[in-house]
Write a structure and sequence with these properties.
CATH architecture of the largest domain: Alpha-Beta Barrel
Distance between the termini: 63 Å
Number of domains: 2
Shape: elongated
Structural class: alpha/beta
Strand content: 15-25%
CATH superfamily of the largest domain: Aldolase class I
Strand order of the largest sheet: 14-13-12-11-10-9-6-5-4-3-15
CATH topology of the largest domain: TIM Barrel
Largest sheet: 11 strands, mixed
């Protein structure tokens, strides 16, 4: 007996355009019987103009858009829930994904441009004790499209005189534990047919997932690498960064020594200063010894507290002594005071949650 088709049965899932690579976009266009130049037009609408509806792509024929709409959709898109503006004009942005998951990015004002701090996961599984995101646990990875949507969405918040030129993968999550989607995103971000952003203005931060570092080195993508080190000895790092028990400092140094740096690049060492834990001259000297032989610059980041945090920020005299100890050992070292702390948007404070007591709310799009 012949089975009757179920008229209510769903058809093939539509392709999510923002999750596709440039090559996959071209394959899709060719599969529709269209000329290759249509892929270039579609890419320009997606990545340069940030189109939110296929109907807005006015230089693509109506018939082509109709065929495209049958097999693809402008997704995945993040929904802007709210922004919070700090006293230093840093803007923390809270997004909702299509499945309701919440994540944050941060627009950081610099002298003549803006930097966007991007998330690559909802939560984080690594549990670094100085990071509020790790305190929340892990929900899931973000897709390429969800990563790109943070950039496209943030651009829509900019004023006429504002320029977004720099991106840092330093928000929620560990990039090397979502390496496939992060590297696909980086390829699109730097491609002339994608977002066309300069690799010298991109940076990725990792706690040191060693297999990911070796795979990342093979990608040949152009970006800066930041290592969240946190401690110069295994004894201290084991206590504050559980990843160190799996990938200890000696193995991490081997991976860093093997990492290919483009001309003019150095590894950035991010070192969170925690009162009474890793902030003495003894640790500064140990850090200097550990970095011997590596081409580095050091960012000292005084701890940014949050409610219930297990650490405190060292006093200014202790911070400056740590800085002087490294400087006297001829390291390039700066004290980097995080922006956005008064709206819980500083380094280590992202939680992906609405909190009326913490946030200074402003109208969406302001």
């Amino acid at each position: 007996m012949t089975e009757l088709a179920n008229p209510a049965a769903p058809g093939p899932a539509k392709k999510k355009l923002l999750d596709l690579s440039l090559g996959e976009i071209q394959d899709l266009i060719l599969a529709l019987g269209e000329k290759p130049y249509r892929a270039t037009q579609l890419g320009a609408w997606l990545f340069r103009r940030g189109a939110e509806d296929l109907a807005n792509m006015t230089d693509i024929a109506t018939a082509t858009r109709a065929r495209l709409a049958q097999v693809a959709e402008l997704a995945p898109r993040l929904t802007l829930l709210e922004t919070a503006r700090a006293s230093d004009q840093t803007r923390k942005i809270l997004w909702a994904a299509e499945d309701g998951a919440r994540l944050e990015s941060v627009l950081i004002p610099e002298k003549d441009h803006l930097t966007l701090c991007l998330s690559c996961q909802v939560g984080c599984r690594l549990g670094c004790r100085f990071c509020r995101t790790g305190d929340l646990g892990f929900q899931r990875d973000l897709s390429q499209g969800e990563i790109l949507s943070q950039i496209l969405g943030a651009r829509k918040l900019l004023g006429p005189a504002e320029r977004l030129t720099n991106l840092v993968f330093m928000g929620m999550g560990e990039p090397l534990l979502n390496l496939k989607e992060v590297t696909r995103s980086l390829a699109l971000i730097t491609s002339p047919q994608g977002l066309a952003m300069a690799g010298k203005h991109l940076s990725l931060s990792t706690v040191g997932v060693i297999p990911g570092l070796y795979r990342l080195a093979e990608s040949q993508l152009n970006f800066g690498l930041t290592i969240s080190l946190g401690a110069p000895t295994d004894e201290i790092r084991d206590q504050i960064m559980p990843i160190n028990r799996q990938y200890p400092l000696a193995d991490l140094k081997k991976a860093l020594a093997a990492f290919p740096l483009r001309k003019g690049r150095r590894l950035t060492i991010a070192y969170i200063l925690l009162k009474g834990v890793n902030d003495s001259p003894r640790e500064a000297l140990a850090l200097s010894r550990y970095l011997t032989g590596l081409k580095t610059k050091i960012n000292l980041i005084p701890f940014n507290p949050w409610p219930g945090a297990p650490f405190e920020r060292p006093d200014l005299a202790t911070i400056e002594l740590f800085w002087r100890t490294l400087r006297d050992k001829h390291h390039t070292v700066i004290i980097r005071w995080s922006k956005g702390a008064d709206v819980a948007g500083a380094c280590g404070q992202l939680a992906g949650q609405r909190n009326a007591e913490e946030l200074k709310k402003e109208p969406i799009g302001s």
